[in-house]
Amino acid sequence: MTLTGKMLIGQQLICGNREAIRAINPATNAALEPAYLGGDGEYVAQACALAWTAFDPYRETSLEARATFLESIASHIEALGDELIERAIAETGLPPARIQGERGRTCGQLRTFARTVRAGEWLDVRVDTAQPQRQPLPRPDLRQRHIALGPVAVFGASNFPLAFSVAGGDTASALAAGCPVVVKAHGAHPGTSELVGRAMAQAVKACGLPEGVFSLLYGSGREVGIALVTDPRIKAVGFTGSRSGGIALTQAAQARPEPIPVYAEMSSINPVYLFPAALAARSEALAQGFVSSLTQGAGQFCTNPGLVIGVQGPDLDRFIRRAADLLPNCAAQTMLTPGISSAYDSGVGALTEHANLAATGLAANGPNQGQAHLFVTQASDFLANEHLQAEVFGAASLIVACASHEEVRQVSEHLEGQLTATLHLDENDLPSAKALLPVLERKAGRLLVNGWPTGVEVCEAMVHGGPYPATSDSRSTSVGTAAIQRFLRPVCYQDFPDALLPGALQHGNPLLLRRLLDGQREA
Ligand code: NAP
């Protein structure tokens, strides 16, 4: 497929009128063809108008038709073959195995949402039948289902060019809910975005859906992004990226005459707790697991273990020594963009100023290389210094040595909201872990035992979310099938004749849903 450098507004390939965006191969700093001219508010309005026209027909497509559409997107992405893999590697510097794995995850995610759509549980049908004889007042017939919120704006993430970009988790869950999607492509991988966007447009056409179900825009966040979030036809936003970007979009959404929800996944340092018995039994193995989680993908994961907390003593010292021995063998890796690489260098600079450097990875050789860094500090310093809690996006981590369990608790209470908290423990650690658990439940969206936070399973029970600033709305997840809930709202139908009810609510239950009928779940 020849890349055109154009936006996709419905089925139309359209050239923008603003400054050109050109992908940079971060491994070489070479600019890649073609140039993508950004759009302005006019293009945003066109895409949103089409999305609005598509909304009512799309949200009432049958469960089967919508599931087939999601599967068709996956098949069209797979049909792009090596061209997609090669372009994504060139635009991100990520290794082939990672990009291939991410394509598998993206298509698997779309097919998982297709199964979710078919099962229909997300409609959450509740029926309270009429009780005309009830005293003192009769009860009307009340029926509830969930419907789609409306067109959704999705911001492609730089660190997941497939799985959290044009056809990634936000898009898949919004489409599954019945919401048309307008994507603002991330400027770091415009060609990958075009390839996937065109595969999506082909799926829209193949499934006979209204063209406004999907559009793809290029341009600056401050112009196209804000115009999108403030367009009255957009009813929700999905975002993964920086805290400042997430806050700007949330504020713009809240300042609208009609405020809308923004699901922004922003910033997390993912504390890892090393409990004493676990440290005594296997500090060296823990150090090995930690270093490999820290350096995976140049540390460019929102779940990267950026903070390690333990009680000081010889076992924690052994952990630090082993990690410090291992780190110098870790090669520097190409980071996603020159901007992310320089943000990492400044974050490391700030940590160098405020904490003790324990070890570094192999020195960088070439442009945009992220060199791993490990720092150590005392809990009292951590508690007194806000700089030590800032996310450094990349393979940098800080070990906090605490004087006691009480200090572990104080450090935990001091933490901002997190995506994850990890507990390494043995049998003898259970009482102290149990004591800490209420704090960690308040702080994080996913709690893990004896594992590492990187690697997020796409499944029914996953929570990839957490209190601010991990996300802008802790009541939801952006990974896993529960992500569909973000784009739904309940509607109740009172005393409707059967002929006027949607299929999901009709008396005969034609969709064979497991409804909550008069307080009892149907078999
Ligand atoms: P970003 O700067 O937040 O950009 C993400 C998207 O948001 C882009 O489309 C960007 O538009 C838009 N945007 C950013 N600021 C905006 C604003 N003030 N108003 C409107 N739109 C705005 O994220 P990034 O480019 O991926 O990486 C930058 C930093 O974000 C990293 O160094 C890292 O610290 C953090 N990050 C965190 C995660 C995570 O999962 N926690 C993931 C990725 C990045 P433009 O096209 O104008 O840039």
Write down the domain tally. Answer: 2
Estimated share of beta-strand residues: 15-25%
Number of strands: 25
| CATH homologous superfamily (4th level) name of the largest domain | Aldehyde Dehydrogenase, Chain A, domain 1
Oligomer class:
single chain
Strand line-up across the major sheet: 17-19-20-15-14-21-22
Radius of gyration: 25 Å
**Structure classification:** alpha/beta
- CATH 2nd-level architecture of the largest domain: 3-Layer(aba) Sandwich
> What ligand species are in this complex?
NADP nicotinamide-adenine-dinucleotide phosphate
What is the CATH topology classification name of the largest domain?
Answer: Aldehyde Dehydrogenase, Chain A, domain 1
- The best one-word shape is globular
The major β-sheet equals:
7 strands, mixed
Write structural notes for this entry.
Keywords: Oxidoreductase. One of its GO terms (molecular function) is 2,5-dioxovalerate dehydrogenase (NADP+) activity. Its EC number is 1.2.1.26. It catalyses: 2,5-dioxopentanoate + NAD(+) + H2O = 2-oxoglutarate + NADH + 2 H(+); 2,5-dioxopentanoate + NADP(+) + H2O = 2-oxoglutarate + NADPH + 2 H(+). Residues 19-457 form the Aldehyde dehydrogenase domain. This protein has 523 residues and is an alpha/beta fold. It has two domains: 7-23 and 33-266 and 475-486, 3-Layer(aba) Sandwich (Aldehyde Dehydrogenase, Chain A, domain 1), CATH 3.40.605; 271-449, Aldehyde Dehydrogenase, Chain A, domain 2 (3-Layer(aba) Sandwich), CATH 3.40.309.10. Helices cover 38% and strands 19% of the residues. The chain has 14 helices and 25 strands. The protein has helices spanning 41-59, 63-79, 82-92, 96-119, 169-177, 190-206, 221-230, 243-254, 276-295, 314-326, 338-354, 379-384, 405-414, 430-443; strands at 7-9, 12-14, 20-21, 24-25, 30-31, 36-37, 126-128, 142-148, 152-155, 181-184, 214-217, 236-240, 262-265, 271-274, 307-311, 333-334, 356-360, 369-370, 373-378, 396-402, 418-424, 444-449, 488-494, 516-517, 520-521. The strands form seven sheets. It has a seven-stranded mixed β-sheet, with helices on both faces. Strands 23-8-7-24-25 form a five-stranded mixed β-sheet, with no helix packed on it. A hairpin with a 2-residue loop joins strand 1 and strand 2 (12-14). Helix 3 (82-92) packs antiparallel against helix 6, helix 4 packs parallel to helix 5 and helix 13 (405-414) runs parallel beside helix 14 (430-443). The longest helix is centred in the first third of the chain and has 24 residues, at 96-119. The two termini are 49 Å apart. The relative contact order is 0.13. The mean pLDDT is 98. Bound molecules: NADP nicotinamide-adenine-dinucleotide phosphate (NAP). The site of NADP nicotinamide-adenine-dinucleotide phosphate (NAP) has 27 residues, from helix 7, helix 8 and helix 11.
